[in-house]
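Purpose: get a first structural picture of the assembly so the mutagenesis plan has something to point at.
Setup: two entries, given in the order below. No constraints added.
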Amino acid sequence: MSTPTSSYTPRRANWLTSSPQTSEGLDLDPETFDDGFGFDEIEEIAWDDAPLTQNAPQVVTLDPAQISVVVDNASKIYRIRSSTEHKKNTKRVSRQVQKVLGSGWAEIPALERLSFVVNRGETVGVIGTNGSGKSTLMKLLTGKIRPSTGEVYATSTPIMLGVNAALVRQISGRENIRLGCLAMGLSPKQAAERFDMIVEISGLHDALDMPLKAYSSGMQSRLQFAIATAVDPDILLIDEALNTGDAQFRSRTKKRLDEVRAQAGCVFLVSHSLGTIKQMCTRAIWIEQGRMLADGDPEWVCSQYEEYTDHKSNGRMRSAQIVYDRTLLKLAPVQIEFQEGTRPTKAG
Amino acid sequence: MAAPAAEQRHTPRFELGPQRIVQMDGSELVRVGARPGFFQYLRDIWRFRHFLQYDAHARTSSQNNLDSMGRVWMVINPLLQAAVYFFIFGYILETHRDVVNFIGYLIIGVLTFRFIQGAVTSGSNSIAGNQNVVQSFNFPRACLPISATVRELFATVPTFVVMALLVYFIGDYQVGDMERADITLDWKWLMFFPAIFLALLVMTGLGLILARIVAHFNDMKHIIAIGVRLWFYASAVIFSVDRFADRGHDWIITVMHFNPAFCVLDIIRDAWLYDGLGDPFRWLVLGGWAVGALTIGMVIFWRGEETYGRER
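Result (C-alpha cells, whole complex):
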C-alpha cells in the first residue's frame, strides 16, 4: 500500500453554512480578504457520511427499448495468489509457516461499486490513468469475470476486442481468422463468407500464410480487431485497439466502427487518446483509482481529466486532489431499480 | 509516484450531484455471463463443435513443431517406451508368467494406457492452463476439456497405428519361456474402435470433473499425477490379473474388473491377441462408466461455469 502523500482535507469556509449574522457587516468576500486575518475564520469541517444536500432523488423511468447495458452496483476485488503475502504477517512463527506453504491470497480492490445505464446508439469513451480499473470494467461487461458485488445486464452479450485477445501463435493468420470466427460461434460457412471482409479490414493480404509468430504486434492487433468485428456485435467493446496501426488502418477502422454504430448497438471505447474520445464518443466515463469520477459530456470530462493528469505529471499532488474532488462533487450517482419481478436472471 | 488513492478510498462519500433513481423494466435484458440451463448448455456445445474440432486439430499439428524431427516423435516416443517396459518388466522382473503372447500384451497395455493417461492429464489442466483463451472468447467452457481429450486422441492416432503393426508382426514373438498363440488378423480386430470410443467418453467425463477441481485448487495437480500412477498399476498394464488369483487377493480382482482402463485393455487384448470379442461384462462395465462419467462430469462442470474465468 502506498502511503498517502497528500494531507488535503476538503475545506469549507464557515460563511457558506452558518447563518448570515457571522458575516454581517463584513461586506467583503473572504476570498479577496488576503491580509492573513480573515482566513483565520475559515475552519475545517469534518465530512460526515450524510450528503450535504439531502435533496429528494430524481426518479427517472427509462424506456426498456432504449436500454443497452445496465451496470448495477458492480464492484470487483481480485483475489490472486501472491508469493510475497507472508511478509505482511506480523507474527514470527506463522510468518515462517506461511513462507513454507508458499503463496497466500492477496486481495486487490480493482473497482468500487459503480452503476450506470447506457442507451442504444451511444458511444461511451472510458478514460483513466493506468491501473485505474478500465480493463476490469471491460472484463465485467463481457462477463468473463464475475463482479464481486452487483451484476451487469445487457440486451446481448457484449463482444470485446482488445490488444490481448488470444490468438494461437504457432498457426498462420489464415487459420487464426478461421479459429477466431469459430470461437465466436460462427458456422464454418459464415466464417468462409466473412473471410474476405476480415482480410480487407486487417489489410494483411500478404502476410496471411505466415505463422503468427512472424507478425509484428501492430499486425496482430489489426488482425484481432478485424476478427472481432466480423460478428456485427450488438454491443462492442474496444480496448485501445485504435491506438495501434497506421493512418490507413485507422481510417478503415473508423469506417467499420461507423457501420457498427449505425446498426443501433452501442460501443464502449477505452483509450488514452483524448482526441479519439472527443471525436468519436457521445459520452465519456472517467474512472480513477477504481472509482467512477465523472460520467457525461466528453468535452467536459476530458478537460477535467487533462487538468488532473497535468497536475499529477508535474508533481502537484494537492492540485490534482482538488480536481479529483471537484469532479467527484459534480457526479450524479445513479441507483438502479427494476420494476417488480423484472430483474433479469436468465442467460444470454 | 504515490497517488492520492490510498487515502481517497477511505474517505466518506461526498456525492453532491443530484441522486438519481432509474427505474426500468428488465424483462428484455439478460445477465451477462450467466450460466445457461443444462440443455441449453449442451446445445451451445453442439453449436461450437466446429471450433472444438478445429482447435484440437490446429494444436495437434503445431504440437511438435519446435523439434527438428517434428511429428516423427509421435511414433518413436511410444516405441521407446514400450521397449523400456519390456526390458524392465519382461526381462528383469519377469512379470510375463501365465501371460500368453506377453510382448503383444505389454505393447497394447503400455500404449493404450499412454492415451488414457494423456487424455486425463491434459483434460484436467485444460481450464487452468488456458486462462488467456477463457478470458478472450465467450464459448461454453466445457469445450476446452472436451477439446483437450479429442486432441489427445488425434495425437495418439499414429501411436495406435504403430501399436497395431507391432502387435501383428512381433506380438506373438517368443522370448525365453514365454507362451505363445498365433495372432490372426480378422474382423474381430475392429472391436478396438468401439472400445476406444467408450474410453474417450470416460476420459472426457473424468477430464471435465478434474478440470473443475484443478481450476479451483491448483494443488490437486500433484494428487492427480500420483493417482494416475496408481491407476497404471491397478489396470494390469504390465502383468496379468491372474497373478493375484492364487494368492487370495480376490478383492484386487474385483476392483480391477470395475476399472474402466482395465476393461479397455482387456477388450483390445482379447480381440487382437486371443481372437475373442471381449467379455460382455467388460463391455457392460465400460459402457456404464462412459454414460455415468460423461453425465456426472458434464453436470459438475456446468455448475461451475461462471467461476472459470478469473485472475489467479
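Chain B touches chain A through 62 residues (CB under 8 Å).
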